[in-house]
Target: GAF domain-containing protein
Amino acid sequence: MIPPLPPRGSGPLIQSQQGDLLRLAAGLVISAIIVAALYYGQAVLIPLAIAFLISFALGPVVHWLVRRGLSRILAVVLTMVLVLTVLGAVGTLVGIQMRSLSAQLPTYQTTIRSKIEDLGARMKGPGILEGAMQTVDTVQKEVAEVVGGGEENEVPPQRVRVIPEPVSPFETALLWLSPLLAPLATAGIVLVFVVLILLDQGDLRDRLLRLLGGNMFRSTDALEEASRRISKYLLMQLVVNVTYAIPMALGLWLIGVPGFILWGTLAAVMRFIPYVGPILSAVFPLSLAFAVDPGWNMVLMTAGLILVLELVSNNVIEPLLYGTSTGLSVLSLIAAATFWTAIWGPVGLVLSTPLTVCLLVVGRYIPQLSILETLLGSSPALSRHTRIYQRLIANDPDDAIDIAEDAIEETSVTQFYNDEGMEVLCQASIDYINNARAEHRLRIANGMDELLEAIREDHPADLPEGAAPRVACIPGKWEIDRQACEMLVHSLQLDGVPAVSRAYGSTTSRYVAGLELEGVEIVVLSFFSSEPDAAARNLTRRLRARWPRLKIVLGLWGVPLEELDRHGAEMLGADAVVASINEAARRILLLLRNAEDKTVGIVQDPQAVEARNETLKKVPLDDPDLREDLNDLAIRAADVFDVKTAAIIAIGPRQELLIGANRELPGLGIDPQAKVMVLPQDASLASLLLAEARSLIVPDIERDPLLAENAVLRAWSARALAAAPMRQADGVVLGALCLIHDEVRDLEDKERELLETLAAEVAERLTGEAAPPTEGPAEPSLSATVGQQVPE
Model:
């Protein structure tokens, strides 16, 4: 019998499912083989792992000595001698303390016996369980009588004494030394491995790069990140342990506990063992305090000292020093500690964190193992807007509100609307037809209304009562269009602009005639649609026919940025097209300001202005060598970031000066005294950074209403802008290093930090002084805020 044919089109699906099952089975088999190899090969792998861990800690010291002119062999020898000397000195002190304690321990027997007798006497009093214990004793006696028949043995049992055979001194020595042979052999192997790794570090790195294969940039980044994270973790662990051990030893010395150096050293060493190390290190000083003091004061003071040190270390020192040095989540740390302890015992517990960091880095840079980063990493598995969207789908708006409030505390209400709120609505628009059921759509609509209402209640706008609205936001068609309008209206109200949201309807003349827009200066039309042109064009045409002087702004929220160019404002009959809450708010503020004929400048510290002017007076901008150096720095920046233009701009007393560039740029004026290109006063670039003195990243200039009309950027065919401030040693901004590209372009965090580093090099070349360090992970300003003038 011929089997029936499968449904048409199901063959590739079945093959895909079978392929997924085969890959899953292969992954499980490989994982089992790796775990078995780790377990059965621990005799070889444990010394290697310990050696690599120690080499990560000692590697920076060797590199520092090599940079000072020593050969690598001499640097390794000096490092190992230093480490062994420190260990020997600490071991000597600990040995002296142990010898002293061993001589004093017999004198504490009386105190221990008296305390135990006192505790026994206290326990003999009538207690809660005394009746129960008597009942149990009675039952045991009755059972014994029944089993034994009530008869007692006539002949008492005789004690048998076994006399051992005499043992020779050699056998005694072997008996004592045999437990020490294995650790000593392991320590020797680790020492040899450490020396070899430090000597051949470059060769080992090359071999690891060959094993990783593939992209050389990605493999190099993986090794650098693993080395940096593990080295930082070990250094911070050492600092934390030392800052714990020193107060521990001093406190025990003041309390009077013998062997304070021994217990401080033991605490520093034991704290390398996660979770159980601090508990074990606390047992010994507490036990000795119990044995030394006839009373209980020493025990209580020792316990209080340990408790205070643990609280300070766990809640102050560790969060301050560790930060995100490992990038591992708490759950992954505990799971890793359990796994490595089960595989390698106590040594695995000590090595669990560094080994798991290596797995995290491997998962980050090898796409096939990206599941490791998802399981082990501390970064959220879902983005913030995805978490809010999921909570709304799950009918849990309260949790979504909590997530939103956390985001607002970090940034602002407007920034939350721009980054998270609109992304939630965009995702809802994508899933509206393809994935969502009617129940899901209702949950999202109701939950989003609750979320916006809660934000408005917690962050009310301070507007005069009865203020006539100047801006009206009209939804295009869907519920999410109305919710986008509410976000924009609230953002404008927080900026002091009276705004209202109208009910959504249709593009008919009757609907437009029923709108109450008297006194309104700007109308924003909100559309979440991939093809909004027809509806937007009809609505704008009817609005203009009814209110000719009305300014119309189209909010095309669902259109990708790269496709916005084909939705021009003139083609759709609008005054402007915006794609985000931030852009819409800035565009509206600019239109209102232009209607009032107002300009807003920067309020600067006069001392900063004077310091900048004095510094630039000392810089010979007409020096050919200086100009050549600045041009070389601009060429390097353009090559590194692969952009069309890199410009170095200084802020002069009256206008900005172009003092370096990677290519010839169209001139807009020449200062005959400085012999450098000057920028028009109303087209400044570097002064935009003075408001917040941090990097300015504008992926698409067309989306920024201020920069889109900048004459300099238009002359230089700019579409994207990234600028980093050039600061002198006292923090005063001298100008900016600007990257300009003719296509839409964004920078990652690491690229922004690199741009700030290059800007610091330019500042050093101008002033001859070391520039202040960059601030690190602070978020860059995404765009200019208001029209800013060059300071006088």
In short: The chain is about 60% helix and 10% strand.
